[in-house]
Amino acid sequence: MQPLGLSIGVWVNALLTLCILSFLYKDNPFFRFAESLFAGMSLGYYIGIVTVQTLQPNLIQPLGETFFGNHNYLLLIPMALGIMLYFRYIPRISWLSRIALAVYIGYYVGVLMMQKIHGQVIPQTRDTIMPVTTGGIDALWNLVVIIGVFSVLVYFYFSVEHKGVVGKVSRVGIWFLMISFGASFGYTIMARISLLMGRFSFLVNNWIRPMFGI
Amino acid sequence: MRRTIPLVLTFMVGMYPIFAFFVPHASISGVNQWLDRALMIVAAFALPLGVVNLVGMNLSKIKQKRAGWPYAIVLLAGLVVMTYFGVIGVITRQHAGFHPTFQMLFDNMVSPLQATMFSLLAFYVASAAYRAFRARNVEATILLVAAIIVMLGRIPFGDMLTGGRMTPLSEWIMNRPNAAAQRGIIIGAALGAASMSIRVILGIERTYLGKSRD
Questions:
Q1: Could you tell me if A157 and A119 lie in one domain?
Q2: What's the mean pLDDT in B106-122?
Q3: Which chain B residues touch A28 with a CB distance below 8 Å?
Q4: Final residue before a domain boundary, out of A19, A40, A65
Q5: In b/e form, how buried is each residue of B59-81, taking b as 16+ CB within 10 angstroms?
Q6: Whether residue A202 sits in one domain with residue A140
Q7: Which residues from A are below 8 Å from B102, CB to CB?
């Protein structure tokens, strides 16, 4: 016999799973109920995560424990900027919300630029420059990667009309992209089927079998 | 004035992380780290903006008794309950981190709802795949073949059919042509994001400030 708390949890879990799966028959009130519940609870979960993992350690706790120590009072500045975001609901001073938005957007685009250049463009380009004259099968596969990266970049280069040589190279780029999209699609399908198997495994092993004692 | 101040702020704050990257002095990187933490707080304050809109939309739906209004009640109930248990630990300071009920609600409601919702796609993806993968031209055929190889490479049945050749072939597709195309996409997207960052910092791109001219 399962503990009561656990069995209630399992029952709720199983019934909500069946509510969602009922959509396979057709759109129905059980599915709509579970869908709405999921949307509301997901947002509530995110609010909880942000409160506990961001606001508590970075704002509430430092301000509550030592206001003047460690220059924690400076945290009032981001707090004020955060509150300023809500000025958009007061038409007379709504423009002030732009200041908070400007600081937020400005900082993150600055960070983003450095992250993209130094974290993606340079490392990915460096990893593409691989030996192709060493002989053996690895050199051939390195060549495949180099041709793939180059042709995909040519495909995304829209400043030149895709005609002649550029058109042919970009066509090769499309083939590489198609392989990648196909692989991603196949990978996604298998991931979703794994999730489905997980749900059925739960229904059979954690709900139906204990219910009938088998 | 009301647009100039935000634009100047965007420029100054946006240039700081770039400046800090090239001048790795302790005092400069210290300010950068503080900005990182501060902007995280501003982002946390931005979350309720979306919540306010969602709650307002659903409350008006309930008030006007529009189609599907009972589901708006379910959504709001889910949001309120999850938010309550998410923030109550922080407010009462009785629990370090999350309230136990918050975790219980996540494990037995949010998590299974999410997994089932995503697993539902496994059924619909079959019909979508039929429409998308019909081998009408070279590109669609390449997509179809890559997807089938990757799917068969993820299950023992694929190796059983081909005498163990499907897994290595699937790995080759993932590691060579797929990696090449993904690398091309990453480099192209990163260059695009970096150029967009420059446009925002220099005040060429201003859509984030809204449409009004005041």
A1: no
A2: 93
A3: none
A4: A65
A5: eebeeeeeeeeebbebbbebbeb
A6: yes
A7: 45, 48
